[in-house]
Write a structure and sequence with these properties.
The chain is elongated. The protein has a 3-stranded antiparallel beta sheet with strand order 1-2-3. The protein has 301 residues and is mainly α. It contains 11 helices and 6 strands. The longest helix has 27 residues.
Length: 301
């Protein structure tokens, strides 16, 4: 089974999509797919579907959605094998027990005590691959291999085709997971830009940082990177303007001043000659706090 959630939901078994179009079964599949090969408690699925106001028939309705998913999985398993979803060949013969087609829909989507488990069968997951590559990139940063870090983190970020669960109606659980994944993405992006700055690619990242600082107007490290890139490109005044813009935003929205690190950076730009480049913004190790695996599956209330 191949699973993509970093953008539109796409779950494929035997090369065939098993993603339903109906919103609620699609929610169920998205949460199961994110936590593939792990039991997802029925309580978490119910909370995802109905928040804190589930109907009396919630468990029965959830079972119906699971049956609908199994029907799609069974059809995908039968695709191209001559196998029917009832486990027989199209010519009426039963499949040999040792046949590789013996995997059934119930073995792909299992009912277990307390919940359900979607078995990937050793397939791919874009979330798992993103987290693997991001971890390699962070370790490369810590080792001072900035070229390797930039390359590896860029590969991790290329797995994203849009916001997580972009075409899924999200409830409590998926909203929480989407926020976590977005933070992990931003962390990897921050560190990829940091690696590029350390490689002297300040002009290459300017356009990207212009967009990012507009999208995240209170993100201090992105603004620090933007200031450095501008200053190294001979745009000292714009670098100082970026600091003032951040200071205004933090004061207006949060009642805060920029951190001492940002104030030191501003001072270094003020005191430096235009061609002098301030140093790196922050250690790579600090990014790891935002890089975490799938969050808790227990209900949040």
């Amino acid at each position: 089974m191949d699973i993509d959630v970093l953008g539109a939901l796409d779950v494929r078994e035997n090369g065939v999509s098993v993603a339903p179009t109906a919103p609620k079964p699609r929610q169920v599949l998205a949460l199961l797919a994110l936590h593939a090969d792990r039991v997802v408690p029925a309580a978490s699925l119910i909370e995802e579907l109905w928040s804190d106001r589930p109907p009396r028939s919630a468990r029965t309705t959830l079972q119906t959605y699971v049956l609908q998913l199994r029907e799609l999985i069974a059809a995908a398993l039968a695709h191209g094998t001559g196998q029917r979803s009832d486990g027989q060949r199209s010519d009426g013969q039963r499949l040999d027990a040792a046949s590789p087609e013996r995997r059934t829909a119930k073995e792909v989507l299992l009912t277990l005590p307390g919940g359900y488990l979607l078995s990937s069968g050793g397939g791919t997951s874009d979330v798992q691959e993103f987290e693997r590559l991001a971890g390699l990139g962070y370790r490369a940063m810590d080792a001072g291999d900035f070229a390797g870090a930039s390359r590896t983190l860029a590969a991790a970020l290329d797995l994203w085709t849009g916001s997580a669960f972009a075409d899924v109606q999200t409830g409590v659980q998926l909203t929480m997971e989407a926020k976590r994944l977005d933070e992990s993405r931003l962390c990897a992006l921050d560190q990829r830009i940091e690696a590029d700055l350390r490689l002297g690619r300040h002009r290459e990242v300017l356009a990207e940082l212009t967009v990012l600082t507009s999208r995240y107007p209170a993100h201090e490290n992105l603004h620090a990177q933007f200031m450095i890139a501008l200053h190294r490109s001979g745009r000292r005044g714009e670098a100082l303007d970026a600091y003032l813009q951040l200071r205004t935003t933090l004061g207006r929205d949060r009642g805060l001043e920029p951190s001492p690190r940002l104030r030191r950076l501003q001072h270094s730009i003020l005191m430096a000659a235009p061609e002098t480049a301030p140093g790196p913004t922050a250690p790579a190790r600090a990014a790891r706090a935002a890089h975490a695996g799938p969050g808790p599956l227990a209900p949040t209330h």
